[in-house]
């Protein structure tokens, strides 16, 4: 499995978790599936952007560095939570 794919999977999983954590707030909840999908998209995209900005996080799969892997999970989780919050606020504002 290529390093890029492993990194992307780590970020998507972290984003899905972050999206569900952010969706626990009543005013931005999209439902379990909506929180997971928005979080996974945010985690994947945000994690890739974070990998470009911080080169140390870009090669997590090729080097067994636990600090970089935690950075991938945290970056994906935060990006997933942010996107879920934005989509949830937009949904509630339009409703």
Question: What attributes characterize this protein structure?
Answer:
single chain; 95 residues; mainly alpha; 75% helix
Describe it.
The protein has three helices and no strands. It has helices at residues 3-22, 32-53, 66-94. The protein starts with a helix and ends with a helix. The longest helix is centred in the C-terminal third of the chain and has 29 residues, at 66-94. The mean pLDDT is 86. 75% of the residues lie in helices and 0% in strands. It has one domain.
Strand and helix map with partners:
Blueprint: H1 3-22, H2 32-53, H3 66-94
Helix pairs in contact: 1-2, 1-3, 2-3
Overall SS class: mainly alpha
What portion of residues belong to β-strands? Answer: under 5%
Helix fraction bin: over 70%
Give helix and strand order, one letter per element, not per position: HHH
Please tell me how large the radius of gyration is. 14 Å
Number of strands: 0
Ends: how far apart?
A: 43 Å
Q: Based on CA inertia axes, which overall geometry fits?
A: elongated
Q: Count of helices?
A: 3
Mean pLDDT across the residues is 86
pLDDT < 50 runs, ≥5 residues: none
Largest sheet: none
Number of domains: 1
């Amino acid at each position: 499995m290529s390093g890029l794919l492993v990194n992307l999977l780590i970020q998507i999983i972290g984003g899905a978790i972050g999206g569900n954590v952010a969706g626990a707030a009543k005013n931005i909840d999209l439902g379990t599936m909506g929180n997971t999908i928005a979080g996974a998209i945010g985690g994947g995209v945000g994690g890739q952007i974070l990998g470009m900005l911080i080169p140390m996080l870009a090669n997590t799969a090729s080097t067994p560095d636990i600090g970089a892997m935690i950075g991938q999970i945290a970056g994906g989780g935060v990006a997933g939570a942010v996107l879920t919050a934005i989509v949830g606020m937009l949904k509630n504002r339009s409703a």
